[in-house]
Design a protein that fits this description.
Chain A contains 14 helices and two strands, in the order ααααααααααβαααβα. With 361 residues, chain A is mainly alpha-helical. Classes of the chains: A mainly alpha (361), B alpha/beta (367).
Chain lengths: 361, 367
């Protein structure tokens, strides 16, 4: 199935006008919303850290503290950090919530994230060889990639990546640029020197380690081991949650991949079309959307990455109507179903063969 | 040593809260306790607003006691929160020191530009609204009140000059104010200045109606007996440039002329290093956005923002006068001049504001 040039133009026009419609409404409501989330994030981080120390009264307080700290980290990374770094709230001129100023509670340096995610992944979504987010150079997720021996145990690799996800994210750009190992690729755009990459990687990573496993355990005195374990657990919960959400966005059963040649000189309408085929949504209650940073509406996020994410669920209805109109598949399902297909994909392609996900444009 | 401690403290804050100061980390909590709180700014309550003329709105603000005060002639950045956005503009203080010392009030006289993004919002502000103001800034003030002085104001340029004159307590030498405007009904702050003129024999007020009197006439009048006087100019850029040229050609030394400008200066011609005066060899700049580079030929009589826009690049911008920092971007290499101050930048990598940067050498800029 292929759209005609006129259809691509009409698609472009419809999605552009949907975007403008929402952009025109941005204002007080969005500002109040994101500030409330930021306040909730600060309060849960502070209370979480205090409650962990109070674990000597009853371990239940410690457990509550761990969950609150994990919640704080998830809110900071997903609904606040990811979205702010996309520039969704730049129009507010806020001293904190600005894409040029925000730094988040994760091992990955914000600047590095903006280069690999905002630029590479969002521009070249699911293009083989250009979007390293499809499998992260570790996992074979379709038969468009050659099978290697290491794919045999990629189920284990996936679980490990999931648990250490923040470090994977932080190392992502250095791996792409072959900073420590491997042969330099000539076709990669180098925006930052290797030494600057290394410096950002080590200093941000060290600050995060020092905070969670040095400073806070130290000031907890005799409760140091509880705090250290609690922080480890909170980081683990955040890692597993973020990786699960992100995997559901691009690696579900029906997502498609593309080749660089296909996308050469594509129009904006074709870009929209590719974004819709390369992403997948999952459904759920409002709180679930917030905990995913609205990446549950991955399709809308990929169409409109700079629109404040709280608008995605409402936009999804209109996007879906557009998809039906042009006969474009709209990949959505329950969280459990979508995650099930992701897990199956990882296991299936650990063995040779299988189907190609390549879509002809 | 202090530098080292500051750097350590910054790293510590970054470690704990991923923010350069802890105040920014706790900002959501601070704003919950004190609505309208902004770091590095001071809270001010709008007490009254009054139209001075058709387009000059006077705001009276009750200012937080922590605000360090001002020297008459200085300006502040006023920041309002409108529809979720923080918007800021620079305004001169037009009220006297006495009002500040006795009641903690200051007044601003704001020219409302109907097409502007911010000033039309000022008239919608309700009294009692919480605003933020910066510390007072600027070096336009009355330096030697013992010497004879001539003040020349045009239009909204009266605001800092009114503050200087109304704040003066001990008059030692004759002072003349030439106030150029479109008739008395368009002269902001006129009644206060007229009162001062009747009370104070050393002060004389000369209105110059721009609809009747040609500018050359005013220039000739100011230049007569100009010796040994201090001159203070404030008004539109072109008006001041001509007035200044006239004063200098009649023998006033540049050191005796102080001026304050609203908006951007007219750009002075630039001679780039390694380039002869009058040479027309064009400069080029490479703008890099999201990895793709665009090479453009620069007009060095315009800001980089204008240059970029004329070539179809549309960099983010805001106030276009160096206030809001929306157009800040990374200069990778090359030299620029700050249009406001004339200061030359370094040649290396640093952040610049496109709207107030004039190209001096070949440039590489990341948008």
């Amino acid at each position: 199935m292929k759209l005609t040039t006129e259809q691509y133009q009409a698609l472009e026009h419809e999605l552009d006008s949907l975007k403008q419609q929402v952009q025109a409404q941005l204002g007080e409501h969005d500002a109040r919303y994101i500030r409330r989330v930021l306040l909730l994030q600060r309060l849960s981080a502070l209370s979480g850290r205090v409650l962990m120390v109070l674990g000597f009264i009853t371990p239940w307080l410690w457990l509550l503290g761990v969950l609150l700290l994990a919640l704080a980290k998830i809110l900071d990374n997903m609904e606040i950090g990811h979205n702010v770094l996309h520039g969704q709230y730049d129009w507010m001129n806020d001293p904190v919530l600005h894409s040029k100023r925000y730094e988040w509670d994760i091992a990955c340096d914000a600047g590095s994230w903006q280069r690999t995610h905002n630029f590479e992944h969002h521009t070249y979504t699911n293009i083989i060889g250009k979007d390293r987010d499809f499998g992260y150079g570790l996992l074979r997720l379709s038969n468009d990639f050659r099978w290697r021996l290491r794919n045999l145990w990629q189920g284990g690799t996936y679980l490990l990546l999931s648990m250490l996800f923040q470090w994977g994210v932080s190392y992502h750009e250095l791996a792409g640029q072959r900073v420590f190992a491997g042969k330099k690729k000539t076709d990669r755009l180098t925006q930052v020197s290797d030494s600057a990459l290394k410096k950002a990687f080590f200093s941000k990573g060290a600050r995060q380690l020092l905070k969670d496993y040095g400073f806070f355990p130290l000031i907890a005195g005799p409760m140091w081991l509880w705090v250290l374990t609690g922080n480890l657990l909170a980081n683990l919960i955040r890692n597993v949650w973020t990786s699960t959400v992100i995997f559901c966005g691009h690696f579900t059963q029906d997502v498609h991949v593309f080749t660089a040649a296909q996308c050469e000189g594509e129009s904006r309408g074709q870009w929209y079309y590719r974004q819709m085929l390369g992403s997948s949504n999952f459904t759920g209650p409002t709180w679930l959307h917030i905990l995913t940073g609205h990446l549950s509406c991955q399709i809308e996020h990929h169409l409109f990455p700079d629109i404040p994410a709280r608008h995605y669920p409402a936009m999804a209805k209109q996007v879906q109507a557009v998809a039906v109109k042009y006969g474009i598949p709209y990949n959505s399902g329950s969280f459990v179903r979508q995650y099930g297909t992701v897990f199956w994909r990882i296991l299936r392609y650990s063995l040779p063969g299988g189907e190609k996900a390549l879509k002809t444009l | 040593m202090d530098q080292l401690l500051l750097r350590l403290w910054r790293s510590f804050c970054l470690m704990l809260g991923n923010q350069p100061t802890l105040r920014l980390y706790f900002l959501p909590l601070l704003q919950r306790c004190w609505p309208g709180y902004m770091p590095h700014l001071y809270r001010a309550t709008l007490l009254d607003k009054q139209w001075q003329t058709d387009d000059m709105l006077q705001l009276t603000l009750q200012v937080s006691g922590r605000w360090p005060g001002f020297v008459p002639g200085q300006h502040i950045v006023l920041s309002i929160n409108h529809n979720g956005r923080y918007l800021s503009r620079t305004f001169s203080i037009c009220s006297s020191l006495k009002l500040w010392h006795s009641q903690r009030h200051i007044q601003l006289c704001c020219k409302v530009n109907a097409q502007g993004g911010v000033t039309p919002l000022l008239q919608q502000l309700q009294t009692g609204t919480m605003l933020s103001i910066s510390k007072a800034q600027g070096d336009f003030y009355w330096q030697q009140p013992a010497n004879a002085a001539v003040f020349i104001a045009a239009g909204s340029g009266i605001t800092p000059i009114a503050a200087m004159l109304l704040s003066q307590r001990h008059w030692l030498a004759p002072v003349t104010l030439y106030y150029r405007c479109r008739g008395e009904e368009n002269a902001a702050l006129l009644s206060a200045l007229q009162q001062l003129a009747t009370k104070q024999p050393l002060f004389s007020l000369q209105l110059s109606d721009s609809r009747i009197e040609p500018a050359a006439h005013l220039q000739a009048e100011c230049c007569a007996n100009a010796n040994a006087k201090q001159f203070y100019l404030c008004g539109p850029a072109a008006f001041m440039q001509h007035m200044r040229a006239a004063l200098i050609s009649s023998g006033v030394s540049a050191a005796h002329i102080k001026q304050e400008q609203f908006g951007l200066a007219l750009l002075m011609p630039v001679i780039t290093p390694g380039q002869q005066a009058g040479s027309t060899e064009p400069l080029t700049a490479r703008f890099i956005r999201a990895g793709t580079a665009t090479e453009i030929t620069l007009n060095n009589q315009q800001s980089l923002l204008q240059n970029a826009e004329q070539h179809g690049l549309s960099p983010r911008f805001g106030c276009r006068m160096g206030v809001c920092f929306q157009c800040v971007c990374d200069k990778v290499s090359g030299q620029v001049r700050d249009i406001r101050s004339g200061v030359l930048s370094g040649h290396g990598s640093e952040q610049i504001q496109l709207c107030v940067s004039q190209p001096v050498t070949e440039l590489v800029i990341k948008l």
